[in-house]
Design the sequence.
């Protein structure tokens, strides 16, 4: 769990959902990172961030993907912020991650997309991203803000503590950088022609979509994603 005591928010930074980009804007607002084996308020790594008033210091910082509420911590009064993504799109991104080691190993082999879904459910189904809906149900929490991958910038700008600093140079610089990143074609174009950027829907058949839906049905329903959004 990532938590800001100063700004009263909990952030669940789900992987493959633009969490790294999110960390660069939440960084200036300072949060603690709680790892699952660390008791609340103790044994935590404190990420010392820049002062929001100082635009001259880089603001990226470590964070955890673990979605949890440490034992002994009372979330009352804290806003819960979660990075989320259409599961069909998310699984395609997990498949892309299979190719990451090809930067250093040109002989690496990754499964075709259909085989990845059918033969590697241990990878994409058990990923920690899936725990965000489960953790909400476990702790009877309703997220206050969803950072949706599909409307990423608007979701970030809806956070009230971002709004209070919207004109700050750090925030304005992040907004411009995010626009550039969102418009750039995938870096994978440079070394894997078959991974040239496509809309995630181009990878799916009904059979593959049904597998993903059945595995992540709870996530679809909890975060309001349409079963037919693979089409």
Sequence:
């Amino acid at each position: 769990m990532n938590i800001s005591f100063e700004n009263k928010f909990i952030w669940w930074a789900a992987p493959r959902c633009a969490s790294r980009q999110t960390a660069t804007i939440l960084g200036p607002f300072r949060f603690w990172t709680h790892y699952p084996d660390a008791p609340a308020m103790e044994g935590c790594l404190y990420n010392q961030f820049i002062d929001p008033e100082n635009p001259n210091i880089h603001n990226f910082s470590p964070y955890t993907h673990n979605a949890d509420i440490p034992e002994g911590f009372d979330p009352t009064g804290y806003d819960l912020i979660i990075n989320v993504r259409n599961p069909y799109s998310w699984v395609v991104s997990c498949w892309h991650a299979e190719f990451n080691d090809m930067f250093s190993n040109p002989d690496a082999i990754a499964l075709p997309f259909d085989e990845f879904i059918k033969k590697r459910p241990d990878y994409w189904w058990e990923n920690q991203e899936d725990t965000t809906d489960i953790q909400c149900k476990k702790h009877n929490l309703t997220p206050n803000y969803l950072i949706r991958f599909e409307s990423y910038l608007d979701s970030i700008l809806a956070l009230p503590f971002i709004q209070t600093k919207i004109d700050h140079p750090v925030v304005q610089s992040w907004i411009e950088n995010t626009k550039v990143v969102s418009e750039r074609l995938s870096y994978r174009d440079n070394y894997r022609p078959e991974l040239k950027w496509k809309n995630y829907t181009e990878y799916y058949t009904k059979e593959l979509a049904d597998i993903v839906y059945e595995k992540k049905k709870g996530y679809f329903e909890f975060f309001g994603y349409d079963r037919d959004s693979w089409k």
